[in-house]
Amino acid sequence: MFEGLSGRLGDVLEKLRGKGSISQDDVNAAMREVRIALLEADVALPVVKDFVNTVKTRAVGQEVIKSVTPGQMVVKIVHDALVEMLAGQIGAQAPDEAEDDGKGEGERKKRDRVAEVLNINATPPVPILMVGLQGSGKTTTSAKIGLRLKTAMRKKVLMASLDVQRPAAQHQLAVLGEQTGVDTLPIIMGQKPTQIAKRALDEGRKGGYDVVILDTAGRLAIDEELMEEVAEVRKITNPAETLLVTDAMIGQDAVTVATEFNEKVGISGIVLTRVDGDARGGAALSMRAITGRPIKLMGVGEKMDALEEFQAERIAGRILG
Ligand code: GDP
């Protein structure tokens, strides 16, 4: 088990009890523990360094409030900075509003906001491109988004799998389409991803669809061919959203994956999946910091309704342990 930051800092800052304010030395000692906690939570080293510097400047000279211990205070400073960094510019997401009121109301709000965080205000049919490594949860997330747009916003959605590497992948999306009642593009074997993408948009126009979700192929690791293929699809479809889907368990690989997809394809946002698992969430912070792109949504289970608006508070809590 990881030792939570509160526990670590409790020992380090015990001697601060009764002091008026936090000194540079105290902060340095505390930041050593913060650094270890973040690295253990799989945050990438350069991101850890930046973060620690930000927090250091904030903590020095802070008056220690009598009602809390210095450890608790530093944890709060670190926590608040983490939330800010994770939420970034889209800090517009209001965690207070999403608080559960015990009647499931908060839960409903979080799920209803899923459709709102996506930018789909272009001329229909609006393409949404899903990219990421194989097994990251792209196909599942495509269907979850399709279902959410259909139910929460009454959008007419068409989904298409561009995965010609694994015939089973196209079938998997068709099955999820049937399960959710979201239309899928009929499968024609032998077409290239770009041909399927064009066919999907044509069908989107002819069929009066509002949104067309394009689920691309993923490899087990990044490769040039995959990147070129996805970049080409992006060029010809000009999507309103290009969402990088990554597993929260991805750990230190998050940096390479996010950098590569952002530089070679270009992404507009990130979806973090398997947040229901026991990942510490450091990958989220690394990807947010390195790409500057917002984490828009998070997958919290295998079921089709297990998709929520990203909550920085929840991930910050995980990272701190
Ligand atoms: P793809 O290869 O990127 O299209 O990945 P899939 O959509 O096929 O997902 C791979 C596996 O992860 C499937 O068994 C999904 O049910 C599962 N999965 C996807 N998202 C989540 C999630 O948020 N939580 C959990 N527990 N499982 C998920």
UniProtKB/TrEMBL annotation:
It catalyses: GTP + H2O = GDP + phosphate + H(+). Keywords: Cytoplasm, GTP-binding, Hydrolase, Nucleotide-binding, Ribonucleoprotein, RNA-binding, Signal recognition particle. It is found in: Cell inner membrane; Cytoplasm. GO terms for molecular function: 7S RNA binding; GTP binding; GTPase activity. GO terms for cellular component: plasma membrane; signal recognition particle. Its main location: membrane. Composed of three domains: the N-terminal N domain, which is responsible for interactions with the ribosome, the central G domain, which binds GTP, and the C-terminal M domain, which binds the RNA and the signal sequence of the RNC. Belongs to the GTP-binding SRP family. SRP54 subfamily. This is Signal recognition particle protein. It comes from Roseospira navarrensis.
